[in-house]
Amino acid sequence: MKCTILNIGDELLIGQTLNTNAAWMSQKMNEIGIDVIHHISLSDERNDIENCLNNALNDSTIVLITGGLGPTSDDITKQVLCDFFGGKLVFNDAAYKNIERIFEHRKKLIDEATRQVAFLPDNCLIIPNNNGTAAGMIFNKDGKTIVSMPGVPHEMKAMLYEALIPYLKQTYQLPFILHCNILTAGVGETQLASRLEQFEKNKHSEIKLAYLPSIGKVRLRLTIKGNDKLILEQHLSQAKSEVCHVIDDYIYGFEDDTLEQKIGALLLEKKYTLATAESCTGGYLAHLITSVAGSSSYYKGSIISYANETKENLLQVHKNTLLEYGAVSEQTVNEMLTGALHQLKTDVAIAISGIAGPDGGTTEKPVGTVFIGVGTHERKIIKRFALSSHRDRNIQAAGIFALEMLRKFLLNQLNE
Fold this sequence. Notes:
This protein is of the alpha/beta class. It folds into 3 domains: 2-171, 3-Layer(aba) Sandwich (Molybdenum Cofactor Biosythetic Enzyme, Chain A), CATH 3.40.980; 176-254, Alpha-Beta Plaits, CATH 3.30.70.2860; 259-410, Maf protein (Alpha-Beta Complex). It is 42% helix and 25% strand.
Protein backbone atom coordinates (compact mmCIF):
# COMPACT_ATOMS: atom_id res chain seq x y z
CA MET A 1 0.00 0.00 0.00
CA LYS A 2 1.66 3.23 -1.20
CA CYS A 3 1.12 6.73 0.16
CA THR A 4 2.12 10.23 -0.93
CA ILE A 5 2.23 13.15 1.51
CA LEU A 6 1.55 16.65 0.19
CA ASN A 7 2.35 19.53 2.55
CA ILE A 8 0.93 22.82 1.29
CA GLY A 9 2.29 26.23 2.28
CA ASP A 10 4.66 28.86 0.92
CA GLU A 11 6.19 29.09 4.39
CA LEU A 12 7.56 25.56 3.94
CA LEU A 13 9.19 26.36 0.62
CA ILE A 14 10.98 29.51 1.77
CA GLY A 15 12.26 27.78 4.91
CA GLN A 16 10.24 29.93 7.30
CA THR A 17 8.57 26.85 8.82
CA LEU A 18 10.26 23.50 9.28
CA ASN A 19 8.17 20.68 7.80
CA THR A 20 7.96 18.33 10.77
CA ASN A 21 4.55 17.03 9.70
CA ALA A 22 5.90 14.86 6.87
CA ALA A 23 8.33 12.92 9.06
CA TRP A 24 5.76 12.31 11.79
CA MET A 25 3.02 11.26 9.36
CA SER A 26 5.42 8.89 7.58
CA GLN A 27 6.27 7.22 10.85
CA LYS A 28 2.62 6.68 11.74
CA MET A 29 1.74 5.37 8.28
CA ASN A 30 4.64 2.95 8.41
CA GLU A 31 3.47 1.65 11.78
CA ILE A 32 0.18 0.49 10.23
CA GLY A 33 1.77 -1.08 7.13
CA ILE A 34 1.57 1.78 4.63
CA ASP A 35 4.67 2.70 2.59
CA VAL A 36 5.22 6.42 2.09
CA ILE A 37 6.92 6.89 -1.28
CA HIS A 38 6.90 10.69 -1.65
CA HIS A 39 7.07 13.82 0.53
CA ILE A 40 6.17 16.90 -1.50
CA SER A 41 6.07 20.48 -0.23
CA LEU A 42 4.13 22.77 -2.55
CA SER A 43 2.88 26.33 -2.81
CA ASP A 44 -0.55 27.77 -2.13
CA GLU A 45 -1.33 27.80 -5.84
CA ARG A 46 -4.27 26.04 -7.52
CA ASN A 47 -2.25 24.68 -10.44
CA ASP A 48 0.49 23.30 -8.18
CA ILE A 49 -2.04 21.57 -5.93
CA GLU A 50 -3.95 20.05 -8.85
CA ASN A 51 -0.79 18.87 -10.65
CA CYS A 52 0.74 17.34 -7.55
CA LEU A 53 -2.55 15.66 -6.65
CA ASN A 54 -2.87 14.14 -10.14
CA ASN A 55 0.68 12.80 -9.96
CA ALA A 56 0.16 11.46 -6.45
CA LEU A 57 -2.98 9.58 -7.48
CA ASN A 58 -1.05 7.93 -10.32
CA ASP A 59 1.52 6.58 -7.86
CA SER A 60 -0.34 6.02 -4.60
CA THR A 61 -3.50 4.55 -3.14
CA ILE A 62 -3.49 7.00 -0.23
CA VAL A 63 -2.74 10.73 -0.45
CA LEU A 64 -2.40 12.76 2.74
CA ILE A 65 -2.58 16.56 2.47
CA THR A 66 -1.88 19.17 5.13
CA GLY A 67 -2.30 22.94 5.07
CA GLY A 68 -4.45 25.57 3.41
CA LEU A 69 -7.68 25.06 5.36
CA GLY A 70 -7.73 28.28 7.39
CA PRO A 71 -9.79 31.48 7.01
CA THR A 72 -7.27 33.63 5.11
CA SER A 73 -7.15 34.34 1.38
CA ASP A 74 -4.14 32.09 0.77
CA ASP A 75 -5.97 29.06 2.25
CA ILE A 76 -7.36 27.58 -0.97
CA THR A 77 -6.96 23.82 -0.41
CA LYS A 78 -10.61 23.21 0.47
CA GLN A 79 -11.96 24.97 -2.61
CA VAL A 80 -9.42 23.29 -4.91
CA LEU A 81 -10.28 19.82 -3.60
CA CYS A 82 -13.99 20.51 -3.79
CA ASP A 83 -13.65 21.48 -7.47
CA PHE A 84 -11.22 18.66 -8.21
CA PHE A 85 -13.68 16.03 -7.02
CA GLY A 86 -16.74 17.73 -8.54
CA GLY A 87 -18.51 18.85 -5.39
CA LYS A 88 -19.82 22.11 -3.97
CA LEU A 89 -19.33 23.87 -0.66
CA VAL A 90 -22.29 23.68 1.75
CA PHE A 91 -22.74 25.00 5.27
CA ASN A 92 -21.97 22.33 7.87
CA ASP A 93 -23.83 22.78 11.16
CA ALA A 94 -21.55 20.50 13.17
CA ALA A 95 -18.44 22.31 11.96
CA TYR A 96 -19.96 25.68 12.82
CA LYS A 97 -20.96 24.53 16.31
CA ASN A 98 -17.35 23.51 16.86
CA ILE A 99 -16.21 27.00 15.83
CA GLU A 100 -18.77 28.53 18.20
CA ARG A 101 -17.47 26.38 21.04
CA ILE A 102 -13.89 27.48 20.44
CA PHE A 103 -14.71 31.19 20.08
CA GLU A 104 -16.91 31.14 23.15
CA HIS A 105 -14.03 29.67 25.13
CA ARG A 106 -11.75 32.40 23.76
CA LYS A 107 -14.42 35.04 24.44
CA LYS A 108 -14.26 36.25 20.83
CA LEU A 109 -16.84 36.97 18.16
CA ILE A 110 -16.91 34.90 14.97
CA ASP A 111 -16.02 37.03 11.96
CA GLU A 112 -17.22 36.29 8.42
CA ALA A 113 -13.90 34.81 7.28
CA THR A 114 -13.98 32.30 10.12
CA ARG A 115 -17.64 31.51 9.43
CA GLN A 116 -16.64 30.49 5.90
CA VAL A 117 -14.49 27.74 7.40
CA ALA A 118 -17.74 25.92 8.22
CA PHE A 119 -18.57 25.59 4.50
CA LEU A 120 -17.33 22.15 3.48
CA PRO A 121 -17.53 19.99 0.31
CA ASP A 122 -20.70 17.94 0.02
CA ASN A 123 -18.83 14.96 -1.45
CA CYS A 124 -16.48 14.08 1.40
CA LEU A 125 -16.45 12.55 4.87
CA ILE A 126 -15.82 15.15 7.55
CA ILE A 127 -13.15 14.66 10.21
CA PRO A 128 -14.07 16.73 13.29
CA ASN A 129 -11.38 19.01 14.63
CA ASN A 130 -11.52 18.99 18.42
CA ASN A 131 -8.47 21.24 18.68
CA GLY A 132 -9.13 23.93 16.07
CA THR A 133 -11.65 25.46 13.68
CA ALA A 134 -10.80 23.75 10.36
CA ALA A 135 -12.35 20.31 9.85
CA GLY A 136 -10.54 17.56 7.97
CA MET A 137 -11.91 15.91 4.84
CA ILE A 138 -11.75 12.41 3.34
CA PHE A 139 -12.42 11.99 -0.38
CA ASN A 140 -12.67 8.67 -2.20
CA LYS A 141 -12.03 8.19 -5.90
CA ASP A 142 -11.50 4.97 -7.87
CA GLY A 143 -10.64 2.99 -4.77
CA LYS A 144 -8.18 5.62 -3.56
CA THR A 145 -8.34 7.74 -0.43
CA ILE A 146 -7.43 11.42 -0.31
CA VAL A 147 -7.30 13.07 3.10
CA SER A 148 -6.97 16.80 3.82
CA MET A 149 -6.04 17.98 7.31
CA PRO A 150 -4.89 21.25 8.91
CA GLY A 151 -1.19 22.06 8.85
CA VAL A 152 -1.11 22.89 12.57
CA PRO A 153 0.78 19.87 13.96
CA HIS A 154 -1.27 19.18 17.09
CA GLU A 155 -4.54 19.45 15.16
CA MET A 156 -3.31 17.13 12.40
CA LYS A 157 -1.92 14.59 14.87
CA ALA A 158 -5.18 14.38 16.81
CA MET A 159 -7.17 13.82 13.59
CA LEU A 160 -4.78 11.15 12.42
CA TYR A 161 -4.90 9.26 15.72
CA GLU A 162 -8.61 9.65 16.43
CA ALA A 163 -10.13 9.28 12.97
CA LEU A 164 -7.79 8.59 10.08
CA ILE A 165 -5.87 5.57 11.32
CA PRO A 166 -9.06 3.72 12.37
CA TYR A 167 -10.61 4.60 8.99
CA LEU A 168 -7.63 3.29 7.00
CA LYS A 169 -7.46 0.08 9.02
CA GLN A 170 -11.17 -0.51 8.40
CA THR A 171 -11.00 0.36 4.71
CA TYR A 172 -7.87 -1.54 3.65
CA GLN A 173 -6.28 -4.87 4.48
CA LEU A 174 -2.89 -3.66 5.60
CA PRO A 175 0.30 -5.73 5.99
CA PHE A 176 2.61 -5.64 9.00
CA ILE A 177 5.84 -3.64 8.75
CA LEU A 178 8.26 -4.51 11.56
CA HIS A 179 11.49 -2.70 12.38
CA CYS A 180 14.43 -3.32 14.64
CA ASN A 181 16.90 -0.50 15.35
CA ILE A 182 20.44 -1.33 16.41
CA LEU A 183 22.40 1.67 17.71
CA THR A 184 26.16 2.01 17.30
CA ALA A 185 28.74 4.65 18.18
CA GLY A 186 32.39 5.33 17.42
CA VAL A 187 32.34 3.66 14.01
CA GLY A 188 31.47 4.78 10.49
CA GLU A 189 28.90 3.26 8.16
CA THR A 190 31.58 2.09 5.69
CA GLN A 191 33.33 0.04 8.37
CA LEU A 192 30.03 -1.41 9.55
CA ALA A 193 29.02 -2.28 6.00
CA SER A 194 32.32 -4.07 5.49
CA ARG A 195 31.84 -6.19 8.59
CA LEU A 196 28.23 -6.95 7.68
CA GLU A 197 28.94 -7.86 4.06
CA GLN A 198 28.51 -11.58 4.69
CA PHE A 199 25.30 -11.02 6.62
CA GLU A 200 23.83 -9.03 3.73
CA LYS A 201 24.67 -11.81 1.28
CA ASN A 202 23.06 -14.53 3.42
CA LYS A 203 20.16 -12.72 5.13
CA HIS A 204 16.52 -13.63 4.55
CA SER A 205 15.38 -12.13 1.25
CA GLU A 206 12.56 -10.14 2.90
CA ILE A 207 14.88 -8.46 5.40
CA LYS A 208 16.11 -4.98 4.49
CA LEU A 209 19.09 -3.35 6.21
CA ALA A 210 19.47 0.45 6.21
CA TYR A 211 22.44 2.48 7.48
CA LEU A 212 21.37 5.80 9.07
CA PRO A 213 24.48 7.79 10.07
CA SER A 214 24.65 10.83 12.31
CA ILE A 215 27.58 12.56 13.97
CA GLY A 216 29.56 9.88 15.81
CA LYS A 217 26.80 7.30 15.50
CA VAL A 218 25.14 4.95 13.03
CA ARG A 219 21.64 3.54 13.45
CA LEU A 220 21.11 0.20 11.71
CA ARG A 221 17.48 -0.45 10.84
CA LEU A 222 16.27 -3.93 9.98
CA THR A 223 12.86 -4.02 8.29
CA ILE A 224 10.54 -6.81 7.18
CA LYS A 225 7.02 -6.64 5.75
CA GLY A 226 4.30 -9.27 5.33
CA ASN A 227 0.98 -10.62 6.53
CA ASP A 228 1.99 -13.19 9.18
CA LYS A 229 3.25 -11.21 12.16
CA LEU A 230 4.58 -14.21 14.09
CA ILE A 231 6.75 -15.40 11.20
CA LEU A 232 7.95 -11.85 10.56
CA GLU A 233 8.98 -11.49 14.22
CA GLN A 234 10.93 -14.75 14.02
CA HIS A 235 12.84 -13.67 10.90
CA LEU A 236 13.54 -10.22 12.38
CA SER A 237 14.77 -11.67 15.67
CA GLN A 238 17.13 -14.02 13.84
CA ALA A 239 18.50 -11.17 11.73
CA LYS A 240 19.01 -9.01 14.82
CA SER A 241 20.98 -11.80 16.52
CA GLU A 242 23.20 -12.26 13.47
CA VAL A 243 23.98 -8.54 13.18
CA CYS A 244 24.68 -8.20 16.90
CA HIS A 245 27.07 -11.14 16.78
CA VAL A 246 29.15 -9.45 14.08
CA ILE A 247 29.31 -5.88 15.44
CA ASP A 248 28.69 -6.38 19.16
CA ASP A 249 31.66 -4.21 20.17
CA TYR A 250 30.07 -1.11 18.64
CA ILE A 251 26.48 -1.54 19.88
CA TYR A 252 25.38 0.66 22.76
CA GLY A 253 21.62 0.09 22.59
CA PHE A 254 18.45 -0.58 20.67
CA GLU A 255 15.36 1.33 19.48
CA ASP A 256 15.09 4.61 21.44
CA ASP A 257 18.04 4.15 23.79
CA THR A 258 20.49 7.03 24.08
CA LEU A 259 24.20 6.76 24.75
CA GLU A 260 23.82 9.11 27.71
CA GLN A 261 21.12 6.92 29.27
CA LYS A 262 23.13 3.73 28.84
CA ILE A 263 26.18 5.31 30.47
CA GLY A 264 24.05 6.58 33.34
CA ALA A 265 22.73 3.06 33.92
CA LEU A 266 26.28 1.66 33.94
CA LEU A 267 27.45 4.27 36.44
CA LEU A 268 24.51 3.53 38.72
CA GLU A 269 25.12 -0.20 38.44
CA LYS A 270 28.78 0.20 39.42
CA LYS A 271 27.97 2.92 41.95
CA TYR A 272 30.49 5.24 40.30
CA THR A 273 30.46 9.02 40.27
CA LEU A 274 31.55 11.00 37.20
CA ALA A 275 33.23 14.33 36.52
CA THR A 276 34.24 16.03 33.28
CA ALA A 277 36.95 18.49 32.29
CA GLU A 278 36.27 20.21 28.98
CA SER A 279 38.18 22.60 26.79
CA CYS A 280 37.17 22.64 23.11
CA THR A 281 33.69 21.22 23.77
CA GLY A 282 32.87 24.11 26.10
CA GLY A 283 30.30 22.27 28.22
CA TYR A 284 28.65 20.25 25.45
CA LEU A 285 29.66 16.98 27.11
CA ALA A 286 28.14 18.12 30.40
CA HIS A 287 24.96 19.03 28.51
CA LEU A 288 24.70 15.51 27.06
CA ILE A 289 25.22 13.88 30.45
CA THR A 290 22.74 16.10 32.29
CA SER A 291 20.06 15.63 29.62
CA VAL A 292 19.26 12.37 31.44
CA ALA A 293 16.74 12.70 34.27
CA GLY A 294 18.32 11.62 37.54
CA SER A 295 21.90 12.23 36.38
CA SER A 296 22.59 14.19 39.57
CA SER A 297 22.86 10.87 41.39
CA TYR A 298 26.11 10.06 39.59
CA TYR A 299 27.33 13.22 37.83
CA LYS A 300 29.14 15.74 40.03
CA GLY A 301 29.94 18.46 37.53
CA SER A 302 32.36 19.85 34.98
CA ILE A 303 35.32 22.19 34.92
CA ILE A 304 35.22 24.04 31.60
CA SER A 305 38.89 25.00 31.31
CA TYR A 306 38.76 26.86 28.02
CA ALA A 307 41.76 29.07 28.80
CA ASN A 308 45.20 27.75 29.76
CA GLU A 309 45.20 29.68 33.05
CA THR A 310 41.96 27.89 33.98
CA LYS A 311 43.60 24.56 33.26
CA GLU A 312 46.44 25.58 35.57
CA ASN A 313 44.36 27.16 38.35
CA LEU A 314 41.40 24.78 38.53
CA LEU A 315 42.79 21.50 37.21
CA GLN A 316 46.41 21.84 38.35
CA VAL A 317 47.78 21.29 34.86
CA HIS A 318 51.48 22.14 35.08
CA LYS A 319 52.62 25.26 33.25
CA ASN A 320 55.64 23.38 31.89
CA THR A 321 53.31 20.76 30.38
CA LEU A 322 51.40 23.43 28.52
CA LEU A 323 54.61 25.13 27.34
CA GLU A 324 56.32 21.93 26.21
CA TYR A 325 53.42 19.94 24.74
CA GLY A 326 50.64 22.49 24.24
CA ALA A 327 47.03 22.61 25.46
CA VAL A 328 46.03 20.07 22.83
CA SER A 329 48.15 17.09 23.77
CA GLU A 330 48.04 13.72 25.45
CA GLN A 331 50.08 15.06 28.36
CA THR A 332 47.75 17.99 29.04
CA VAL A 333 44.62 15.83 28.84
CA ASN A 334 46.24 13.35 31.24
CA GLU A 335 46.73 16.12 33.79
CA MET A 336 43.23 17.51 33.16
CA LEU A 337 41.87 14.05 33.88
CA THR A 338 43.81 13.78 37.13
CA GLY A 339 42.73 17.29 38.11
CA ALA A 340 39.04 16.53 37.52
CA LEU A 341 39.22 13.37 39.62
CA HIS A 342 40.90 15.23 42.51
CA GLN A 343 38.94 18.48 42.37
CA LEU A 344 35.49 16.93 42.02
CA LYS A 345 36.33 13.82 44.04
CA THR A 346 34.76 11.25 41.70
CA ASP A 347 35.44 7.64 40.80
CA VAL A 348 35.82 8.24 37.07
CA ALA A 349 36.32 11.24 34.82
CA ILE A 350 36.50 12.39 31.19
CA ALA A 351 38.82 15.10 29.85
CA ILE A 352 38.77 16.70 26.39
CA SER A 353 41.06 19.19 24.67
CA GLY A 354 41.21 19.91 20.95
CA ILE A 355 41.16 22.34 18.05
CA ALA A 356 37.51 22.75 17.05
CA GLY A 357 38.25 25.30 14.34
CA PRO A 358 37.84 26.99 12.01
CA ASP A 359 41.31 28.34 12.84
CA GLY A 360 44.03 27.49 15.34
CA GLY A 361 45.38 24.43 13.54
CA THR A 362 49.00 23.69 12.66
CA THR A 363 50.74 21.20 10.38
CA GLU A 364 51.38 18.92 13.35
CA LYS A 365 47.93 19.48 14.87
CA PRO A 366 45.41 20.52 12.22
CA VAL A 367 41.86 21.66 12.91
CA GLY A 368 39.90 18.66 14.14
CA THR A 369 42.70 17.29 16.32
CA VAL A 370 41.15 16.24 19.63
CA PHE A 371 42.55 14.33 22.60
CA ILE A 372 40.04 12.56 24.85
CA GLY A 373 40.89 10.83 28.10
CA VAL A 374 38.82 8.64 30.40
CA GLY A 375 39.85 6.92 33.57
CA THR A 376 40.14 6.51 37.30
CA HIS A 377 42.95 7.31 39.70
CA GLU A 378 44.46 3.90 38.93
CA ARG A 379 43.97 3.65 35.17
CA LYS A 380 43.74 6.24 32.42
CA ILE A 381 43.34 5.87 28.65
CA ILE A 382 43.89 8.78 26.27
CA LYS A 383 43.24 8.70 22.53
CA ARG A 384 43.88 11.11 19.69
CA PHE A 385 41.13 11.77 17.12
CA ALA A 386 41.35 13.42 13.72
CA LEU A 387 37.92 14.95 13.16
CA SER A 388 36.64 17.37 10.48
CA SER A 389 37.24 21.01 9.61
CA HIS A 390 33.76 22.03 10.81
CA ARG A 391 33.60 23.53 14.30
CA ASP A 392 30.09 22.49 15.33
CA ARG A 393 30.53 18.94 14.03
CA ASN A 394 33.85 18.62 15.86
CA ILE A 395 32.29 19.67 19.15
CA GLN A 396 29.41 17.21 18.75
CA ALA A 397 31.64 14.37 17.58
CA ALA A 398 34.07 14.89 20.47
CA GLY A 399 31.18 14.65 22.92
CA ILE A 400 29.89 11.42 21.38
CA PHE A 401 33.34 9.82 21.14
CA ALA A 402 34.03 10.73 24.76
CA LEU A 403 30.83 9.06 25.92
CA GLU A 404 31.55 5.97 23.84
CA MET A 405 35.07 5.77 25.30
CA LEU A 406 33.58 5.95 28.80
CA ARG A 407 31.02 3.26 27.99
CA LYS A 408 33.71 0.87 26.79
CA PHE A 409 35.94 1.79 29.72
CA LEU A 410 33.20 0.91 32.19
CA LEU A 411 32.68 -2.42 30.40
CA ASN A 412 36.43 -3.13 30.31
CA GLN A 413 36.30 -3.08 26.50
CA LEU A 414 38.52 -0.04 25.88
CA ASN A 415 42.00 -0.87 24.63
CA GLU A 416 44.94 1.46 25.20
